[in-house]
Write a structure and sequence with these properties.
19 helices, globular, binds iron/sulfur cluster, five-stranded parallel beta sheet, binds flavin-adenine dinucleotide
């Protein structure tokens, strides 16, 4: 521990943001970093706890007190080395993670937690700036070949780990560019695309082969992949979108959030013209769904110049603070107000959409809602009850469905003959990430269902260890320390 009294002397200080009215003029990231001296003070707040709960709160098992201490002492290069021991892509998590580590930080019991995520981002950005992150290809190659299907954070993390072990890794990606939801789901104002390109450049220099426009199961035969490679890891994500089976859902203007976000991301990445984008300009936009995807639709609609932006969430409004039944160090279900919410939106909770209304030409013009309440009875699933007399009509020209994802696409499972679990994910446990077919493994959202980037990286790393052990009889690739937790 660098400074014993650090947590008593310094208050938590986060990076600041460009003002909402200014930042919505473009799609760029809008954070204003803290000065180095201030970051050191934030590192000094870490108490180097005997039992660092932050460490177990992190799905990667990051060595958080260790890098906090290095930052406090200004030893940035050592901090970057510690960070990269457990996380292949801290520049992604340092920008986008909801930071379960901070909710588990001991300082959070009676103070604001350490700014772990921001410290992480600054370490990795400094490391890139200083040129400390360079390609590090393996000295010796095995003669083993591995196919990874899907280039999201799970696929890329698995690829880097297995390449480090000397195997020849090929990543197959059906889209034009790599990154998965990092590129095509998450808007640039949360993470600019050059952050992905910068890292992918290093991976390619390390010898990872990347094939884009390569849709396994469509323009590449899955069985050929099985025959040509010694092992396969499926990292295809949980991409089946939930829809809303109510009258009017086929009207022009009722749009899946991922169609809206993907086209806009392609436009910002100069892959399509603005004419291809589903524009929210001058429209009354209603975003249905209150999660991350919904929030990204709000930020994008405001950048388009929407006339109004409204958000419905069917669940009741969470409490502002930590609920009593989710005490520290558990992850609390509390009200999340994102930077996109702060750019302008009216949010409504406990609202269910009953019907979309259209004109004679089939264009969406409005929608009907009703308020709902949730009935909780011991041992029963929560029941949804409509509140009588609360029906309401809203003007709407663009309804964005951000209702989550129901699981993985079936094509790959069918072609490889794989079992899916009851949640329609590929069946494989965290014991060894293997599926019912020997030599075929699954990781990331495709195995665990729609989740988080930090979990995708963690699963990619863990799966890589097990694939290496399957091919070589043993593996020296690291497993996270807390991987002896119950296997699910
Ligand atoms: C809009 C949105 C915003 C989000 N924001 C956040 C956030 O702020 N923070 C956070 O932690 N998480 C966020 N998430 C969740 C996070 O992005 C995912 O959990 C994570 O990307 C999952 O990684 P993955 O590698 O498992 O899959 P994905 O990122 O989904 O990547 C899967 C890849 O596989 C490819 N693929 C699929 N099938 C095939 C095939 N047959 N052949 C070839 N390629 C194939 C796909 O094209 C895709 O590129 C968000 C999700 C969405 C939808
Ligand atoms: S729990 Fe918080 S204070 Fe304790 S070691 Fe982790 S970051 Fe530091």
């Amino acid at each position: 521990m660098g400074k014993i009294t650090g947590f008593l002397e310094h208050k938590r200080q986060d990076e600041s943001y460009i003002a909402p009215e200014k930042r919505i003029e473009n799609y760029k990231e809008f954070t204003i970093p803290l000065k180095e001296e201030k970051l050191k003070d934030q590192g000094a707040r870490c108490m180097d706890c005997g039992i660092p709960f932050c460490h177990s709160g992190c799905p990667l098992g990051n060595f958080i007190p260790d890098f906090n201490d290095k930052v406090y002492k200004g030893k940035w290069k050592e901090a970057a080395e510690i960070l990269h021991k457990t996380n292949n892509f801290p520049e992604f998590t340092g920008r986008l993670c909801p930071a379960p580590c901070e909710e588990a930080c001991v300082l959070g019991i009676n103070e604001d937690p350490v700014t772990i995520e921001n410290i992480e981002k600054n370490i990795v950005e400094k490391a890139f700036e200083e040129g400390w992150i360079t390609a590090n290809p393996p000295q010796v190659r095995t003669n083993k070949t591995i196919a990874i299907i899907g280039s999201g954070p799970a696929g890329l993390a698995a690829a880097q780990q297995l390449n480090r072990a000397g195997h020849t890794v090929t990543v197959f990606e059906r889209d034009e560019k790599v990154g998965g939801l990092l590129r095509y789901g998450i808007p640039d104002f949360k993470m600019e695309k050059n952050v992905i390109d910068r890292r992918v450049n290093v991976l390619e220099k390390e010898g990872i082969i990347i094939k884009t426009n390569a849709h396994v199961g469509l323009n590449i035969d899955a069985n050929k992949i099985k025959d040509d490679f010694d092992a396969v890891i499926l990292c295809g994500g949980a991409t089946v979108r939930r829809s809303i089976p109510i009258p009017g859902s086929d009207l022009k203007g009722v749009t899946q959030a991922m169609d809206f976000l993907k086209l806009n991301n392609q436009y910002v990445d100069s892959l399509v013209d603005f004419s291809a984008v589903i524009s929210a300009k001058d429209k009354n936009v209603i975003v249905i769904g209150g999660g991350d995807t919904g929030s990204d639709c709000i930020g994008t609609s405001n950048r388009h110049g929407a006339k109004s932006v409204t958000n419905f969430e069917i669940l009741s409004k969470p409490s502002e603070g930590r609920p009593a039944h989710q005490p520290w160090p558990y992850w609390p279900m509390k009200l999340k107000t994102t930077s996109s919410h702060k750019e302008g939106v009216e949010r409504f909770f406990s609202v269910s959409t009953k019907e979309f209304i259209g004109d004679a030409k089939g264009n969406l013009t409005g929608l009907k809602t009703v308020e709902v309440e949730w009935i909780f009875e011991a041992g029963e699933r929560p029941q949804l009850k409509e509140v009588e007399g609360t029906e309401k009509e809203w003007k709407c020209d663009l309804a964005l469905l951000a209702l989550g994802f129901t699981g993985a696409e079936k094509t790959l499972a069918d072609q490889f003959g794989l079992k899916m679990d009851y949640r329609t994910n590929i069946e494989a446990t965290t014991k060894d990430y293997t599926t019912n077919i020997p030599g075929i493994f699954a990781a990331g959202d495709m195995r665990r269902g729609q989740s988080l980037i930090v979990w995708a990286i963690s699963e990619g790393r863990q799966a890589a260890h097990h694939v290496d052990a399957y091919l070589m009889g043993e593996s020296h690739l690291p497993l996270k320390d807390n991987s002896d937790l119950p296997k699910v």
